[in-house]
Amino acid sequence: MRKPLAPIALGSYLTVLAGTSLWPNPVDGQGLLASITSEILIFTRGISWLHWIQYNQLEALANILLYVPLGVFLVFFLPKAKLWLICLVPVMVSLLAEGWQRLFLPDRYATANDVIFNSLGGLLGITIATSIRRWLKSSKTEH
Q1: Helix (H, G, I), strand (E, B), or coil: what is residue 91?
Q2: Cα–Cα distance measured from residue 18 to residue 20, given in angstroms and rounded to the nearest whole number
Q3: What is the value of pTM for the model shown?
Q4: Residue 110 burial (CB < 10 Å; 0-12/13-18/19+)?
Q5: At how many degrees (to 10) do helices 112-142 and 55-77 cross?
Q6: How far, in Å, CA of 52 to CA of 4, rounded?
Q7: Are the CB atoms for 101 and 110 separated by under 8 Å?
Q8: CA–CA distance, 5 with 118 (Å, rounded to integer)
Q9: Over the stretch 78-115, which tens digit does the pLDDT of each residue have?
Q10: In whole angstroms, what is the distance from residue 66 CA to residue 14 CA?
């Protein structure tokens, strides 16, 4: 990722993350996200090896995927930070978002599962980015 684009990508991602986490209506309500969710579930039911996917599995996968970029950005924007500290950030961000939902968004459902799957997504992103960074460093030293 080119350096001038990185802050724009981060800002765009954080906007999506905040909007998704703090939107006052649940995804399974009405509107565009509910329509997309419904279409994905219809699509998966039409494929024999994906027919087991129901709303709960789709929500868990979406929570994981939503936080993967957070982990990636943390590793690349904070290259000198301690890994254990970086690993805490997705957990804390998720706890903050779910706490906000619980306290201020009565139509949203804050759950421990959301915190778990969000955190797993962030940790997966950290793992991917750390692996890429190590691979890039090792390929530079070989040449």
Answers
A1: helix
A2: 5
A3: 0.88
A4: middle
A5: 40
A6: 43
A7: yes
A8: 25
A9: 999 999 999 999 999 999 999 999 999 999 989 999 99
A10: 10
